[in-house]
Amino acid sequence: MSAYKFRVLLDTENDTEIFRDIVIDQKANFELFYQAITTAFDFKNEQMASFYVSNDEWDKGEEISLVDVNFDPDAEPVGLMNNLNLEDRVQSSDQKFILVHDFLSMWIFLCELQEIVDEKVEIPYVALAIGKAPDENSRQDFENFEEEYGLDEEDEFGDDDFEDEDYDADDFNEGFEQYDEYDY
Questions:
Q1: What is the 3-state secondary structure (H, E, C) of 15-56?
Q2: Are 8 and 81 in a shared domain?
Q3: Percent share of the chain, pLDDT over 70
Q4: 108 and 39 share a domain?
Q5: pLDDT tens digits, residue range 72-118?
Q6: Is the same domain home to 120 and 165?
Q7: How confident is the model at residue 181 (pLDDT cuts 50, 70, 90)?
Q8: What CATH number is given to the structural domain containing 119?
Q9: 63 and 80 co-located in one domain
Q10: Are the CB atoms for 79 and 17 separated by under 8 Å?
Q11: I want to staple 102 with a disulfide (CB 3.0 to 4.6 A). Which of 8, 45, 47, 82 is the partner?
Q12: How far is CA 47 from the centre of its chain?
């Protein structure tokens, strides 16, 4: 039996090198690979995620999604992680995948095949861990919202005395008189 050893690099805002080498059976599906990655970085498997088949320039190619969120019956179906095995999408000895975890926080993992090892792997494991992974919730900092955007939480327009402004409610109806004939 053969297994893949992938180097999985966490793309961070600073230039800190954080990666894990994960060894996984080549017949494993993408969902197991996703779980191995999130576990290796101490992230939870509670978010939407997608793999993208990539190339040497790290362009996004075919999407392999955790769940099908496509509601358009005419749209092309998306591959699902639990239906596709790694060996079905590994086309080269340095195959690359991009994993996007949590589309709001946009955690991006760059996965590159390092080698094919002659080993039976029943459970994926981390062969090498470099760097401390950040807290998964560290990108959800809403405390500095007002400071960052210059807005007040109570007034999204940045105008504290909107209520005190001189305006007449009839001003808002100006230009809509023609709709009165339709009983609006």
A1: CCCCEEEEEEECCCEHHHHHHHHHHHCCCCCCCCEEEEEECC
A2: yes
A3: 72
A4: yes
A5: 677 677 789 999 999 999 999 999 999 999 878 789 999 999 999 99
A6: no
A7: low
A8: 3.10.290.30
A9: yes
A10: no
A11: 47
A12: 8
Per-residue b/e over 126-142, b at no fewer than 16 CB within 10 Å? Answer: eeeeeeebbebeeeeee
Structure-token match 């978010």, residue found: 47
Instruction: Please answer whether residues 158 and 151 qualify as being in contact, where contact means their C-beta atoms are separated by less than 8 angstroms.
Output: yes
CA distance 158 to 137: 27
Across the range 31-41, mean pLDDT stands at: 96
Instruction: Give the residue numbers spanning the domain of 48.
Output: 3-139
Is the model's pLDDT at 67 over the cut of 70?
Answer: yes
Indicate the number of domains in the chain: 2
Per the structure block, which two tokens stand in for 13? Answer: 């805002």
> Phi/psi at 164 (nearest 5 deg)?
-85, -5
CA dihedral 10, 13, 14, 16 (to 10 degrees): -10
Among 5-19, 22-36, 58-72, 99-113, name the one with the lowest average pLDDT: 58-72
Q: What angle do CA 69, 75, 79 make, to 5 degrees?
A: 55
